[in-house]
Design a protein that fits this description.
The chain is mainly beta. The protein is 8% helix and 37% strand. A hairpin with a 2-residue loop joins strand 4 and strand 5 (65-73).
């Protein structure tokens, strides 16, 4: 569906419909662009630790907070955690460069769980009240990391295999090429 333009807030729904209409195609095989009408953050998923993860993560502003939109595909069925991390850096193979899990001042680290079905797609749209975008207390310039399984640690060490399978740096994004 070349040239398709949709807002970040509708990205997850539109992508699910596009995937359904395209038969067995995944988001990675549909030639689409996603445009925002207003300021949004995110981008294309970078696979970590040898995973084959694909998709995108965006955060769009909304009144009173933000909406986290996750499209994950090409990974095994199971439970995945989506967590904001301190550093906007996805360059290390095991995701150590993303730093520790992040929470706003006075807040606590939150993990958002999603189940990957046998269809190979995980689509989530999560409204998060009170989530700030802009620095110094917001998520701009931080990262979002996808963790495999809910029972394992969110921590990691340099060059040690862990459960981090994908990462996105949260920079201003008006267009994401899938």
């Amino acid at each position: 569906m070349p040239g398709m333009r949709i807002s970040f807030a509708l990205a997850g729904i539109a992508l699910m419909l596009a995937v359904g209409l395209a038969g067995c195609e995944t988001a990675a095989t549909i030639n689409a662009k996603i445009f925002s009408r207003g300021p949004g953050l995110g981008g294309k998923i970078r696979a970590l630790g040898g995973s084959s993860a694909k998709g995108f993560i965006v955060v769009s502003r909304r009144e009173g907070g933000a909406t986290l939109i996750v499209n994950l595909n090409d990974v095994s069925p199971g439970i995945y955690r989506i967590v904001f991390h301190m550093n906007g850096n996805c360059s290390s193979r095991n995701g150590f460069s993303a730093g520790p899990p992040w929470a706003p001042p006075g807040g606590e680290v939150k993990a958002y769980d999603g189940a990957m079905g046998v269809d190979g797609l995980l689509n989530m749209s999560i409204p998060i009240s009170g989530l700030l975008i802009d620095p110094p207390d917001g998520i701009l310039g931080r990262s979002v990391v996808v963790h495999d399984a809910t029972s394992s640690s969110l921590d990691t060490e340099p060059d040690v295999r862990n459960n981090r399978i994908a990462c996105v740096v949260l920079n201003e994004a008006s267009e994401i090429e899938l």
